[in-house]
Amino acid sequence: MEASKNNIIEEVTQGEYKYGFVTDIENDFAPTGLSEDTIRFISAKKNEPEFLLEYRLKAYRHWLTLEEPEWAHLHHPKINYQDIIFYAAPKKKEQLGSLDEVDPELIKTFEKLGISLNEQKMFTGVAVDAVIDSISVTTTFKETLAEKGIIFCSFSEAVKEHPDLVKKYMGSVVPYTDNFFATLNSAVFSDGSFCFIPKGVRCPIELSTYFRINAANTGQFERTLIVAEEDSYVSYMEGCTAPQRDENQLHAAIVEIVALENAEVKYSTVQNWYPGNKEGLGGIYNFVTKRGICKGNNSKISWTQVETGSAITWKYPSVILKGDNSIGEFYSVAVTNNFQQADTGSKMIHIGKNSKSTIISKGISAGKSNNSYRGLVKTTKSAVNARNFSQCDSLLLGDKCGAHTFPYIEVGNKSSVVEHEATTSKISDDQLFYCKQRGIDTESAIGLIVNGYAKEVLNKLPMEFAVEAQKLLSISLEGSVG
Amino acid sequence: MDTTIKDMDLKSKLISTFHENRELFYKNTPAEISALKDIAIKDFERLGFPHTKLEDWRFTNLANALSHDYSLSIKPEYQEIDIESIFLCEVPDMDTYNVVLLNGWFASKNASLSILSNGTIIGSLAKAMQTYPHLVKEHYGKYANTSKYGLDALNTAFSQDGIFIYVPDNVKVNKPVQIINVTNSEEKLFVQPRNLFIVGKNSELTIVNCDHSLNHNVKFINSLTEVFIGENATLNHYKMQNIDNNSALINSIYFHQSANSNLTTNSITLNGGLMRNNLNIALAGEHSNADLFGIYLIDSNQLVDNCTFVDHIVPNCTSNELYKGIMDDKSRGVFNGGVLVRKDAQKTQAFQSNRNILLSDDATINSKPHLEIYADDVKCSHGATVGQLDPEAMFYMRSRGISEDSARMLLMYAFANEVINKINIEVLRERIDEMVSKRLRGELSICDQCVLQCKDKAPSVFNIDMTKI
Amino acid sequence: MLSIKDLKVSINGKKILNGFNLEVKAGEVHAIMGPNGTGKSTLASVIAGREIFEVTGGEIIYKNQNLLALAPEIRAREGIFLGFQYPVEIPGVSITNFMKTAVNEHRKYKGLAPLTATEFLALMDEKKKLVELQTKLANRSVNEGFSGGEKKKNEIFQMAMLNPDLSILDETDSGLDIDALRIVANGVNKLKTKDNASIIITHYQRLLDYIVPDFVHVMYEGRIVKSGGKELALELEEKGYDWIKKELEEKSNL
Lengths: 482, 469, 254
Known about the structure:
Largest sheet of chain B: 13 strands, mixed
Helix content of chain B: 10-25%
Strand content of chain A: 25-35%
Structural class of chain B: alpha/beta
Oligomer: heterotrimer
Helix content of chain A: 10-25%
Distance between the termini of chain A: 31 Å
């Protein structure tokens, strides 16, 4: 297992994008463009309760007052929001009672991606919610989880079955006014995953959502809500891929995590949206708002991400450390190659006493890509004895790429200790020669060294995901040094 | 005649003042510089004053400082005034060539340009424009960026005087040039001095630049300095800032470094209401090196913002940056340090470090060191820390019988000392060392030497030994 | 096995090797000694294929092929092993993973199937004993945070794992205490067979008490100036390098 985990980045160095195929599924589309009518269409299509439609409309009206942010170290042509289809759903029967009712094309799609929706064939210990073009198609292991009182279902289902929980927690971490993309999502989100771990329960298996964009010209706007009650624990994993298309597609998701007293949530992502081709054509624009709140004392939220896909990544998984003694963690490996651009990092907002946070970020830039770390560590006056340690390293492969670091440190009390370190390096000729002298060729040597460089973060991935991640990752660093 | 600005917002007031007094601003300026002023006033109209929505100004809000009815000192009135009679240098033992700017105007009883025997010229920039236009024109306006920064544009349009220093090739200036920048007015004053320093090939110069205020009236100083450092030349630049709590000081400096040149700059900020240091270093010649050091010790409602930008344009250059701050009461420290390594600037070595200690729960620090790197064969790192004094060191000292207060003092002193030790002029280092110690003990150094003696409420008597200046 | 003829090497235009000649046959142990800066480490690097050096003349024939035409990793797979004087640190890459990659690349080159995890671990265990390498060390990153002795032991361990035909040990004794020296030397001796050969580069005679050479060469200013049996090393130890220098000067004065 150790070895396979260590091979993740190495795997990345092999081959072209493997998940670029398109599945031929009949879809229900919303009309192109965005208006109150589009939103009413989506809400009606999903038979939503009134409160949700109101929420969407409030968000939409607020969105109209906002401008797209430009502060990130990213360059892309202006997105025309009237050219996007905001809702696409595979046509299906009213209720999905069992896997037999799922379109066989869809099952095949997921099998191609290496994910079996058949519980018997699955990795033991992983429950999957599969989301294709905004809509959750099936959730596995639901019954097993229900026995423990754990709710793991699509967001739409949660709205119907558990409206009080949704009402209570949705928007409590990322309010609809939060930022341009989060507000957009709040107006048009289609589906996503919902997860609730009741008091005192340790979720026995890994929960996983698999996101797939399939239809052309569509945006994907899913939202995930995870609530961990007192003394509970859950490990959650997210994977994503998209077909190879020449046009850019927009993905603007929201993930909200609430951890109550003594609860622990571990959230892992392997993001492998289509990155565009070698000339920079196509690829996903990935603008994602991910935030958790350590609401109760002694709670813990940990983000681990391996970011290899997307033409543009704009993503700052954050933790609000409200509870005393709460802990926030962020471990990230971001690889950019060809014309990819990533502006990613984390925010740790310390409010509670003795709260602690750790940020470990490893950026790897190759080709003509730009890779930026951007992060904020803030301690308020109340965050007595808050501690943060941040380490942000960049590795440059070649002289046509860029590696940037933009940490923001804001400390508002005298007892906090905040440390930030950043280094930039390249693979040294000495290291390459040493490997070659042992008979290892340049490509394998780069694989080994890059892999070693990212090890600290890869070690944080759950075992099951590390194996899956190998299949999912497939950006090529090939030819980036030489 | 002072022009007082009232009613209208400051930006439009300034612009109309400019147009109403065109002949004063253009008086005696060479055609090339007049042309720069034409562009600059348009740039200022477009850009206005910086605001917190600009990334570089997120933490420093000028709104309050800009809300006053300012007077502009646009006619040279002070040239005949004996400035030495009202000002006492805080480093009396330092042997320097001494020049004074009063409210932005060159002030001296003597000639407005002195020429040393080695050919070095020191004096008024306004005068230099007339006497040595070719020297001024070669560098003036070449390094500041009026199209990007509103304050640079404003200064370029309005500035009428400042300090000019020219060191010819192959000259080592034997003692430091001390520039004393004082403001003193019964009115709320808006001052915009402009300096130009040129250090020739293989030459060496040390500048000690002191900012002072002589009373507590509100002032806004928008100072702009351009510095050219020739091939294989060395410049040591010290900036001491000790102004009153009601004033705002913008100190923008552009250093342009040629091949094999060496720059050391020290920013020592001891007191002031709002102080912003914009240090821009262009490493434009190979094998040049820049060392940037800074220390800031602030309290009450003071704000110090060190905004540095090191531009590695060519290969094989090095830069090394160390800024340290101690913040007390409700003060705010800002460090905004950028390093850009351009595409072809291989073999760059750039290091950056910002360390801070907060002494109060009401004090804040915003630190944003950032690296932008486009070359792969480089060694770059940065670090920022905010923290308490090392508890283990505290315990160690206390276990040796040192009181907690003394231990804290010792550690803070040690913390500051790392930067103070970088000062190469012994008398200056000793004096600053003493001032920092006093500052750490809570004795405001500005009052220690201040002629106003406002703490005692005694009327100030300007009884100063002129020989000490 | 190895034949170096009139080798001339320079770096940045500076001549380092100047007409170097050496013949090494299977089963032989050659020691190359000489004062600092005479090109001993350069020789090792050039045989291993370090690109920063420019070969301006001469040839190196290894197993009947032109060695200089081969990429460093091919030379390694052909059985050349260099024990580095200053092994580089590779953060995050465990020795286990590093060696597994190397061993399997060698096997692939020889047309053999890669070792399974179990086989590989068994091989590791066997070879670790040879250099009394602690288990913990094998799980650490390559050379990262290693003491001088650990680094050298690790080099010999890798040599054991890769089983080279020609090993070049560059100042393997430098920075070693007497116990580590004994362990390293024992390792080298155990690996010696009639089919492989070693070149031991050293500054002091000390290592040669443990590894007995068949030939001792003295290098000075980029070439071999004196060759002999193991007794030459002892003579050097006694008289110092000045003796060689003097001899050379006298010769050139004639």
